[in-house]
């Protein structure tokens, strides 16, 4: 596989299985530095599996995956994380028995090139609600606060790429809007994002590139504005 220096992530011919169930059938995906990529598709089409495969969480996989030109096709999740990839999982992944402060501080580490542009103070400034809740435990937070904390934790690892899987799921409209504002800020600070969200219009309006999965294959891909205009989009999303 040829690697091009400007790509942060290159995935080519990615397959994944759960036992005998073949879920991804050869997916290609490239993400450049600072780019926002939207990943769309109906329920069960393989979005979370693709993310989990890229992150090294699905052991039965095949294909080529590189981060910054380093082969991560067989990498373990902690090795992928060290490449500068942060994951905000569906269900949020905050530590329920640690305080907000502890959750944030234990995530903190400088970026791959020593970058430290999202220190604790800046994260608290961006999420004032967390500042008010610093001594509360993770499990005492509302869903929206947990989501902010999860994104705050991701920022404190100074990643080059943040992967957000259903970050707005089940949250009130005002909080959802706030999360999208945060996503805009993340993009403006030069961090690439891969976003899965049910609100395909918002995904497309926030993304540079988009791809739509259908049964573990990429059925539609390109600049988000073109994907948004595609006559196939509503059929593929079942809307
Ligand atoms: N841990 C697992 N074990 C077995 N099969 C799984 C597992 N996780 C997902 N699947 C199956 O893999 C297929 C793809 O699921 P996946 O969760 O990747 O889809 P998705 O596009 O993210 O959909 P959703 O929005 O519902 O999460 C589905 O048929 C699902 O039932």
Automatic annotation (TrEMBL):
This chain's source organism reads Thiohalocapsa marina
Q: What is this protein called?
A: ABC transporter ATP-binding protein
Its GO biological process annotations read: L-amino acid transport
Going by the UniProt record, its keywords in alphabetical order are: Amino-acid transport, ATP-binding, Nucleotide-binding, Transport
Q: Which InterPro entries match?
A: AAA+_ATPase, ABC_transporter-like_ATP-bd, ABC_transporter-like_CS, BCAA_Transport_ATP-bd_LivF, P-loop_NTPase
Stretches assigned to coiled coil: none
Q: Which residues form the signal peptide?
A: none
| Record has Translocase as a keyword | no
Tell me which family the UniProt entry assigns to this protein.
Belongs to the ABC transporter superfamily.
SMART domains, alphabetized? AAA
Q: Spell out the PANTHER family in the cross-references.
A: ABC TRANSPORTER ATP-BINDING PROTEIN, HIGH-AFFINITY BRANCHED-CHAIN AMINO ACID TRANSPORT ATP-BINDING PROTEIN LIVF
Q: Does the keyword rRNA-binding apply?
A: no
Q: Which residues form the ABC transporter domain?
A: 9-239
Which Pfam family is one of those matched by this entry?
Answer: ABC_tran
GO molecular function terms here?
ATP binding; ATP hydrolysis activity; branched-chain amino acid transmembrane transporter activity
């Amino acid at each position: 596989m040829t690697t091009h220096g400007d790509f942060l992530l290159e995935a080519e011919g990615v397959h994944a299985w759960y036992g005998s169930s073949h879920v991804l059938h050869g997916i290609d995906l490239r993400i450049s530095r600072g780019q926002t990529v939207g990943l769309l598709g109906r329920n069960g089409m393989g979005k979370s599996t693709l993310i989990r495969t890229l992150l090294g969480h699905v052991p039965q996989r095949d294909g080529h995956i590189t981060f910054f030109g380093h082969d991560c096709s067989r990498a373990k999740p902690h090795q992928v994380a060290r490449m500068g990839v942060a994951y905000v999982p569906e269900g949020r992944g905050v530590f329920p028995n640690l305080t907000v402060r502890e959750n944030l501080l234990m995530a903190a580490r400088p970026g791959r090139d020593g970058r430290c542009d999202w220190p604790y103070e800046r994260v608290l400034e961006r999420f004032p609600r967390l500042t008010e809740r610093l001594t509360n435990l993770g499990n005492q937070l509302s869903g929206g606060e947990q989501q902010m904390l999860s994104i705050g934790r991701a920022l404190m690892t100074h990643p080059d790429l943040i992967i957000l899987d259903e970050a707005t799921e089940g949250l009130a409209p005002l909080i959802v809007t706030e999360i999208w504002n945060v996503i805009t800020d993340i993009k403006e600070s030069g961090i690439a994002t891969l976003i899965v969200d049910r609100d395909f219009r918002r995904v497309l309006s926030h993304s540079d590139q988009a791809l739509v999965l259908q049964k573990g294959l990429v059925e539609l891909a390109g600049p988000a504005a073109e994907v948004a205009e595609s006559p196939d989009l509503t059929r593929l999303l079942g809307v």
